[in-house]
Amino acid sequence: MMRLRKAARVILVGAPGVGKGTQSERLLHRFPQLSSISSGDLLRHNVKQRTPLGIKVESTMKAGLLVPDDLILRLINNELNQRGWLYSNHPAGNVMTLASCAAETQSFSNDADMAAFISHPAHARGYGSPSEDPSASFLLDGFPRTATQAERLDETIPINMVVSLKTPLAVIMERISGRWVHEASGRVYNTTFNPPKVAGLDDVTGEPLVRRADDSEEVYRQRWKKFEETSEPLLEHYARKGVLWEVEGMSSDEITPKLMREFERRFAE
């Protein structure tokens, strides 16, 4: 385990199946000051807690609509602020704390009021500056996915390292084609590197394993293509900012040592 000398604000970018989750877990284990912040977890938490923002999120999702960027940014800003990792530049003090409290407690008479609160510059845009304390270090997962979202995020939370994880398509295809799942428990096996003791059966229960529908070659190729289209401008955005670092490997175990070395070089004592 290593200590950080300054705040790391990090995003991992990689195609589905490239091993983002594995690399995140390994970074979090090696650097205890790092936290994981997931936009999906924040959305689910706010929905479960029935906060005004959560109620808005739930109604948006039930209507089959995408959750607006402003709303996700608001949730991320709230989370960082509640942890004490965002400072206001406003002479009156930490106004973002007031905004956060309002977001948790304020009720809105209609959607227009909510929209105005979320997108108002005093609350949502360019209002805080991030703490450089090493304990204010995080991996941000699930957002941003597009260059437009990244530009909005820059206004409040300038990311200082973006890791682009690269593994050849053929290697990922082989990985996915060998993947089998025990549906009830979520246990995942792979005929190449983590096979079940008895082919086609779960080690614990002996029940049959199944293939996920989205593990088909055709479905994965579509997901890969979509990822390439959206990630290219995102990575270009961060390359212009000077914070993009690319790493390639045939497996997670090949990528991890390279990633750890670079992370230590940038942030560790």
Describe the structure.
The protein is an alpha/beta fold and 269 residues long. It has 11 helices and 9 strands. It has helices at 20-30, 39-48, 52-62, 69-82, 95-105, 111-119, 121-124, 147-154, 169-177, 217-241, 252-267, and strands at 9-14, 34-38, 86-88, 128-130, 137-141, 161-166, 179-182, 187-190, 244-248. It has a 5-stranded parallel beta sheet with strand order 2-5-1-6-9, with helices on both faces. Strand 7 and strand 8 (187-190) form a beta hairpin. The chain is globular and about 60 Å long. Residues 90-109 and 121-126 have low confidence and may be disordered.
Key terms:
two-stranded antiparallel ribbon; 15% strand; 48% helix; 269 residues; five-stranded parallel β-sheet; 11 helices
Strand content: 15-25%
Q: What is the distance, rounded to the nearest whole angstrom, between the alpha carbons of the first and last residues? A: 11 Å
- Low-confidence spans: 90-109, 121-126
Number of strands: 9
Question: Secondary-structure element sequence?
Answer: EHEHHHEHHHEEHEHEEHEH
Helix-residue proportion: 40-55%
Radius of gyration: 21 Å
**Count of runs of 4 or more consecutive helical residues:** 11
Largest sheet: 5 strands, parallel
Oligomer classification? single chain
Structural class: alpha/beta
Whole-number average pLDDT? Answer: 85
The strand line-up of the biggest sheet is: 2-5-1-6-9
Shape: globular
Function: Involved in maintaining the homeostasis of cellular nucleotides by catalyzing the interconversion of nucleoside phosphates. Has GTP:AMP phosphotransferase and ITP:AMP phosphotransferase activities.
Catalytic activity: a ribonucleoside 5'-triphosphate + AMP = a ribonucleoside 5'-diphosphate + ADP
Subunit structure: Monomer.
Organism: Cercophora samala
